[in-house]
Amino acid sequence: MKITVFPTVEEMSSAVAETAAEILRTAIREKGRAAFIAATGASQFGFLQHLTAAPGIAWERITMFHLDEYLGMPADHPGSFRRYLRERLTGKVPLGAVHFIAGDAPDLAAEIRRLNATLAETPVDAAFVGIGENGHLAFNDPPADFTTEMPFIVVPLDEACRRQQMGEGWFKTLDDVPRLAISMSIKQILKAANILCTVPDRRKATAVQACLEGEVSPLFPASILRTHPRCHLFLDPGSASLLSPSTRGA
Question: What sign results for the dihedral spanned by CA atoms 12, 14, 15, 16?
């Protein structure tokens, strides 16, 4: 894992976008196509703003997969991740294919089968992810399932995760936050050729420290990123504030 700490969130976001854009350009140049996994949440705001403005990306040759979505959530709800991505990504660039998770699909099993089949046919060049305040990766809250081979799974959301969603302003009360979600699994995320993990903010510092300096464990789901051969973790001074000097310089 490569770890880089940037002086400001703006510099961090710009650097992640520059790295992501080059991965996509290279994939298109070498294979004629590219595919990536998109995360949501406050950590991705600046990154997506810079990425959608990056020059020289043939967006029409790119496929986007959606990382996670609340179960039963309408696509137009303010907390919906489909709405988030439409407003910040898919509505700004002409992607060749977009595979959203329909969390409110009338036949949930059929929706998961559709997602799994589509993803199985498409090599993923990059996963753009973050780390939750509880150490989650996507909506794989602790203790996460490190063993399932299913690309998408239904997962329960713990209280820490739900409080984070409320704290970021997506919901008015804790009771408004759904208790279940569809999430890409840990093993599926790790199949991406590159993983770019963006983690700003002091409120993420405890999770970052646990995931980087503790054991690789389902109790700290994002710790599994340390096993990926091409994972780059982007931090700001706040999120890196509890790391030892040796970890920060890794």
Answer: positive
